[in-house]
């Protein structure tokens, strides 16, 4: 049984920073002023921006309680007060109600030591869009201060298994990157797996065991339309989009054992790119669309290999550790995040494609399903805590660790949308 | 490569057993006994009913495993807890898709029952424990299901009678995170159709 419906607009996943933000930039985001007929909208823009910047691991926002003054106009700022609080940068702003369900958000970013404005914008917004616009403000501030694009308006997809009276209910959900506003896009009594965003972020491919056998579906987010694109005999799994969105690499075992195939979504032609008695699965496309990295146990235990997207001889990539699997490319294409198993402990590790070196980022014990943020700064992954499946995040340099606490159910298989 | 070697090993194993002429009944291993404790409440209820009928049929010799049991289970002997066919779970060693020898006898029983009823179709469902990545575990579960299905087909079960599917780590029997749970989750289940 399948159904598609929306959930309420509240946080299902809340973020707990569990380790270290030393070296993060101090910044004060002052609670925004409010001008309007009715009482203030419940969307606290300054809080959302603060939380976004903190979550990136690059900033250490000043708690609002530590602020002695709450300026919302430039003329109200006394920079020496903020220098005394050790803040490098200051964000002020206000929201003005301009009509029925119409607002104007204004904000300014200042360099505290020079006492100068760096940037500022006025953004019209409906009530429904306030949260999204707060994330846009975070993106602007993040880019202005780090030189890199922010990823705060992006979304995450993930699978939840809500078990009640020994009955499982599997759900595929899409939420904002801060966990807010989760929407269930598929519900099933049988497992759902391996969500994968199309490069234009308009569709999600996933594996569904409805009818008690695995098939691959591509679902359009705007209208919920589902397209069953692979339902061969045996395994249909691990869908991975080519960078131009025209092809899906998949795992099919219809020829006798799991191999990597590439399906052209337009012509629906299928080409086989690995031929081996071993298990070949978990394909990931390089950014140039010419190479596919995959997991294979042809050498005995799972390791990462690369092969031309047209097929041919596969080349082994990983030689450290007795288990390396489930590769995913960084947005710049230079590194892979993967699952590395060693003596029964499974951790997220980074593999540098140029140097061949591996760097372990997490502690395990059962960390899996890594997914890069679209600006490459963070890796979202599935982990366990107190026997419960949940999502965690680690900064790409390994410094900042976060845990996303779920409202309920076993959460796993996160997939971060593209920009 | 691993599955190829496994297949050859299994074929040798089966031919050895066949040439012996007698298949000795092996002692139930501890973890097979554990499988009985996970039967559903439906089977628990049936168990108490089955006890009365077992006494009735004590000492009856029969070749067909379905005969001589409670007539309540005539068409569904796998639901009869007194019937060896009610054992439908085969457990595997870590990272292995080799069917442990102690299950050969059980698989033979199922195969004999099926090969004489060629219109009966079963599902052979493979599983893995939670360790390692999910899609790789789907493949591991399939290897296990295939190993059991292959043994059955060697004993005369038709291809069309056996449908294999792997659920990987997605449908565990135990949701704990310890050796005991992992042992119980590394399994293949033989699933007969509902009446």
Write the layout of secondary structure elements.
The complex is a heterodimer of chains A (419) and B (195).
Chain A lengths: L12 E7 L5 E5 L3 E3 L9 H11 L3 E3 L17 H6 L4 E11 L2 E10 L4 E10 L4 H17 L8 E10 L2 E10 L6 E6 L3 E6 L5 E6 L6 E6 L5 E5 L5 E6 L5 E6 L6 E6 L5 E3 L7 E6 L5 E6 L6 E6 L6 E2 L6 E7 L5 E8 L2 E8 L5 E3 L7 E5 L5 E8 L2 E8 L5 E6 L3 E7 L3
Parallel strand pairs in A: 2-4, 2-5, 3-5
Antiparallel strand pairs in A: 1-30, 5-6, 6-7, 8-9, 8-31, 9-10, 11-12, 12-13, 13-14, 15-16, 16-17, 17-18, 19-20, 20-21, 21-22, 23-24, 24-25, 25-26, 27-28, 28-29, 29-30
Helix pairs in contact in A: 1-3
Chain B lengths: L1 H19 L9 H7 L4 H16 L32 E3 L12 H12 L6 E6 L6 H21 L7 E7 L10 H7 L1 E5 L4
Parallel strand pairs in B: 2-3
Antiparallel strand pairs in B: 1-4, 2-4
The radius of gyration of chain A is: 23 Å
**Largest interface by residue count?**
A-B, 41 and 27 residues
Instruction: Give a count of the beta strands of chain B, DSSP E runs of length 2 or more.
Output: 4
The radius of gyration of chain B is 17 Å
Largest sheet report of chain B: 4 strands, mixed
Helix percent band of chain B: 40-55%
pLDDT averaged residue by residue of chain A: 92
* Approximate strand percentage of chain B: 5-15%
Give the CA-CA distance, first to last residue of chain A: 33 Å
Residue stretches of chain A low in confidence (pLDDT < 50, at least 5 long) are: 1-9
Report the helical percentage of chain A: under 10%
Strand order of the largest sheet of chain B: 1-4-2-3
% residues in beta strands of chain A: over 45%
Could you tell me the number of beta strands of chain A? 31
User: What is the structural class of chain B?
Assistant: alpha+beta
Number of separate helices of chain B = 6
Question: What best-fitting shape of chain A do the alpha-carbon axes yield?
Answer: globular
- H/E series of chain B, N to C? HHHEHEHEHE
Task: Extract low-pLDDT stretches of chain B.
Answer: 16-62
Average pLDDT level of chain B:
77
* Structural class category of chain A: mainly beta
